[in-house]
Design a protein that fits this description.
Layout: E1 6-13, H1 24-38, E2 41-49, H2 59-66, E3 73-76, H3 79-82, H4 86-97, E4 103-106, E5 111-112, H5 116-149, E6 164-166, E7 172-174, H6 176-192, H7 195-204, H8 212-219, E8 227-230, E9 233-236, H9 245-255, E10 276-278, E11 285-292, E12 300-307, H10 308-311, E13 325-326, H11 327-347, H12 358-377, H13 383-411, H14 417-426, H15 432-442, E14 443-449, E15 452-457
Helix pairs in contact: 4-5, 6-7, 11-14, 12-13
């Protein structure tokens, strides 16, 4: 013979008015009558007096959830006694009761999950619960967007961005001490182009440490120039900026030369790494070191640069035989050429860097693609030829777009001739990171063709 089901009776009211005529006593009485009609046994009573149904933070409800293993059925008089929130109601029924093998009964709505009809009703309720969730989310997002459009940063809990403290209505007020740190971070990056150096300098100057990713987020956060954003849209903020927009743009141009990624720091291992291009095959030069044994001076290492197609010939159709260059030779020529360029700039005898019309060049590539398509349509070229030529032209277009973006970023980097003079005077005394920062600021590239070395400047 089947054992009678053990039932937990849950009741709730939220005010002294006892929710109309639904007092704890009335709810309990009607649930007991239902149990008697079904031959079920009341296992225990749970009631939350004077508790709102807007959330699940209720002592007896939590006690019931912790003792679910003792019962077969959970019963309420009405669904709103369990919760006023459709979302919370479905969470309790689906994620707590049914998931743990417990049936659920609501007397007033004749909802009984021990029957097929009752289970079908749960599915309908779930649809309305999802609608409620979507409506709440939509309202929240609309509220956030309205706040941001009004110039206020979207709320992020207790966390405040470095340099600011919380003001009235969660507005941003400048924290002078922390704002000085933010300014210092931007100044140091402009000088050294290295987040690792910034970390070391901040520590030396007594500032609290910052993780690499945190500093990079600070450097790229437009909040510091008075902007707020939401879902890709940017608005003018009501808070006071810490960084001038001109400096922010210069830093973004420098950051663009160091995209985040596992290989982002490798160029820093060599002074001219990633700047030298082979004039014969077009490949980049790669840096390498070798040890020189010297009984008088002692052993020492020499850093040189070699075309990739010469160093790793198995990766290419043909081995390149362009010249290998020592770092010391390139560094000496770099300083000499830079000094000459500065002198010519001052006397205005140097030709200004000619701006390329990338839009025109890209348009001409697109016109060539369209002509190929016309030729294919007329049957003048084969499909494979079309695919090959269009592939080549698309690569050419991609390279032009990349170069255009690079040149635009380069225009934002401020070059001060007096500062460059100071750099040249002290260059040999600088640490590697300082030397690399100067190279990145003034140099666009180096082309090696035999014994000929050509410097392309960024100013």
């Amino acid at each position: 013979m089947e054992q009678p089901k053990r039932v937990a009776l849950y009741s709730r009211y939220s005010s002294n008015a006892q929710d109309g005529n639904y007092s704890i006593e009335i709810q309990t009485e009607r649930m007991e009558a239902t149990c008697k009609s079904k031959g079920w046994i009341v296992g225990d009573y749970f009631s939350d007096a004077a508790y709102s149904g807007a959330n699940m933070d209720r002592p007896d409800l939590q006690s019931l959830l912790s003792r679910l293993d003792e019962f077969d059925v959970i019963m309420v008089y009405r669904l709103d006694r369990l919760s006023r929130s459709q979302r919370d109601t479905m969470e309790l029924i689906q994620d707590y009761f049914l998931k743990n093998g417990k049936a659920f009964v609501s007397v007033s709505e004749t909802l009984d999950t021990t029957t097929p009809f009752g289970m079908a009703m749960i599915g309908i309720l779930a649809v309305f619960a999802e609608l409620e969730r979507a409506t709440i989310t939509e309202r929240m997002q609309a509220g956030i967007q309205k706040r941001v459009q009004s110039g206020y940063r979207q709320l992020g809990g207790n966390h405040m961005p470095t340099g600011y403290k919380r003001g009235p209505e969660s507005t941003l007020i400048i924290d002078d001490q922390q704002a000085d740190k933010v300014k210092r971070i931007f100044d140091l990056y402009e000088k050294f182009h290295s987040i690792t150096v910034i970390q070391r300098k901040l520590k030396e100057e007594g500032y609290a440490g910052r993780r690499f990713t945190t500093i990079r987020q600070i450097l790229s956060n437009r909040l510091y120039i008075g902007k707020v954003s939401y879902k890709g849209e940017e608005y003018e903020g009501v808070h006071e900026p810490i960084i001038l927009e001109e400096q922010f743009d210069r830093v973004q141009a420098l950051l663009a030369r160091h995209p985040p990624g596992k290989n982002a720091g490798k160029a820093k291992e060599s002074l001219f790494g990633s700047f030298i291009t082979c004039g014969k095959c077009g490949e980049l030069y790669t840096a390498y070191s070798y040890r020189v044994k010297n009984q008088t001076k002692g052993d020492y290492y020499v850093r040189s640069y070699i075309c990739r197609a010469r160093r790793f010939p198995s990766e290419y159709d043909e081995k390149c035989f362009n010249e290998t260059m020592k770092n010391d030779i390139i560094e000496s020529l770099f300083l000499s050429e830079l000094q000459g360029m500065i002198t010519m700039r001052r006397s205005s005898t140097a030709k200004p860097k000619q701006k390329k019309n990338y839009d025109l060049m890209i348009r001409r590539v697109e016109e060539r693609i369209n002509r190929l398509i016309d030729l294919y349509s007329d049957g003048d070229i084969e499909k494979e030829v079309l695919r090959s030529k269009i592939g080549t032209l698309n690569e050419e277009k991609k390279a032009l777009l990349k170069k255009q973006s690079s040149d635009i970023q380069g225009e934002k980097i401020h070059i001060d001739l007096k500062q460059l003079d100071d750099y040249i005077i002290d260059f040999s005394n600088f640490e590697f990171t300082e030397k690399r920062a100067i190279v990145e600021k003034v140099l666009d590239g180096i082309i090696v063709n035999g014994n000929s070395i050509t410097f392309e400047w960024a100013f």
